[in-house]
Design goal:
The chain has 425 residues and is α+β, with helices and mostly antiparallel strands. It is built from 10 helices and 19 strands. The protein starts with a strand and ends with a helix.
């Protein structure tokens, strides 16, 4: 008797999702707990795993369809291996003699090879393959055990755009079509022709757009700037990074300094770490920092919880783990729930200055930017220093200008004299 595959619980307040991609097609063998589809929610992508081993009998919804938690999206039957459609099987009986084992072996081997190759692709890699229209079977994987990484896909796409041969993956035939049939490949547009492409927004991108516009419509947004001399932090990092990595197994970055400095500044300016609920102001006695991370499908903000009580090593390890999860597409709902303050580091992409938008219901976001050597005056002398612009965007309904300036000054003082972070000044 077939086993139903249902949409799993997606997290608090999330009741529906969009079917982003089918990872298995009808007739494919599946193992227990093996991903067969990916769902896109308002926050992350979630894989749907097979509840039992067997063969994917049918898909009940199409890619792009909206499904609710608990809905049945597929059924798994007994057996395994690929199977041809009934019509194809009947046709083969009347039109051709049964294939010999030797003749039948190559297609089966090809199917198994393709199946094994598909298992090595993470959701992020699969998405990149679809977006850039490259053939994963022609890509040499640089990851562990020869697995294909997202960087491998991007490199293949870049080579294709530069004039290398284009290997388009064949379109998957509908479930009702004979298994032996192949779909025709798209005809490329003539060289130099003006074209356009329409791509449906993912649920995550739609949510990002809605929340950012909501922030602009609801909050009284204002941005205050300052700059900071990074000399002391750079010197401390260069002096201790090898010992730090040897002891803690993680590299010492700049983000942990700013997280600790933000925790210190928030004690003096608690409104930056507060939120408005109705006609009340809710002040948090803890600092949960949402760290903006770039993911294949857009910007995500996993939360470093109780960052004010963490050590430098704990902060760095947590952020590094989030970065890896974002790249692999494995961030969970719980990773991004909550958050009382956000830090966004546009400097890693080369940004010199920006006005970040707050993440409701938070009241403030700190924007970091690239470190650039600039002439500054020190003790009456013009000297060159590694400088960074800081930007604090905040809800002016809750945070006054004086408080915003004070917050940035406290961060500036802590970064330019990291000893303050150790003695709580």
């Amino acid at each position: 008797m077939p086993t139903d595959v249902k949409v799993p619980t997606l997290g608090e307040s999330i009741t529906e999702a969009t079917v982003g991609q089918w990872l298995k097609k009808p007739g494919d063998a599946v193992a227990a707990d093996e991903p067969i589809a990916s769902l896109e929610t308002d926050k992350v992508s979630v894989e749907v795993n097979a509840p039992v081993a067997g063969m994917l009998a049918e898909q009940l919804v199409a890619e792009g369809a909206t499904v609710e938690v608990g809905a049945i999206i597929a059924r798994i039957g007994e057996g395994g291996g690929t199977t041809a459609a009934p019509a194809a099987a009947a046709s083969s009986k009347t039109q051709a003699a049964p294939a010999t084992p030797a003749e039948a072996a190559p297609p089966k081997a090809d199917a198994e090879a393709s199946h094994d190759a598909a298992l090595t692709l993470s959701p992020a890699v699969r998405r990149a393959v679809l977006e850039h229209h490259v053939d994963p079977s022609k890509i040499h994987g640089s990851g562990k055990d020869g697995r294909i990484t997202k960087d491998d896909v991007l490199a293949a796409a870049q080579a294709k755009d530069g004039g290398a041969p284009v290997h388009e993956p064949e379109a998957r035939a509908p479930a009702s079509a004979p298994a032996q049939a192949t779909a025709s490949k798209p005809v490329p547009a003539p060289s130099g022709e003006r074209t356009e492409e329409r791509v449906k927004m993912t649920r995550l991108r739609q949510t990002i757009a809605t929340r950012l516009k909501e922030a602009q419509n609801t909050a009284a947004l204002l941005t205050t700037f300052n700059d900071v001399d990074m000399s002391a932090v750079i010197d401390a990092r260069n002096r201790y990074k090898d010992l730090f990595e040897k002891k803690h197994g993680i590299r010492l970055g700049f983000m942990s300094f700013f997280v600790k400095a933000s925790a210190l500044a928030a004690r003096d300016v608690p409104s930056v770490n507060a939120r408005i609920e109705g006609d009340e102001i809710v002040y948090n006695n803890y600092l949960d920092v949402s760290v903006a991370v770039s993911a294949p499908k857009g910007l995500v903000v996993p939360v470093v919880r109780s960052a004010d009580r963490m050590s430098f090593a704990e902060i760095e390890k947590t952020i590094a783990d989030f970065g890896k999860k974002a790249k692999d597409g494995t961030l969970g709902i719980e990773d991004m729930k909550g958050g009382t303050f956000t830090i966004s580091n546009g400097g890693v992409f080369g940004s010199l200055l920006s006005t970040p938008i707050i993440n409701p219901p938070q009241s403030a976001v700190l924007g970091l930017h690239r470190i650039e050597e600039r002439p500054v005056v020190r003790d009456g002398q013009v000297v060159v220093r590694p400088m960074m612009y800081l930007a604090l965007s905040y809800d002016h309904r809750l945070v006054d200008g004086r408080e915003a300036v004070t917050f940035l000054v406290r961060i500036k003082e802590a970064i330019e004299d990291p000893t303050r972070l150790l003695i709580d000044l």
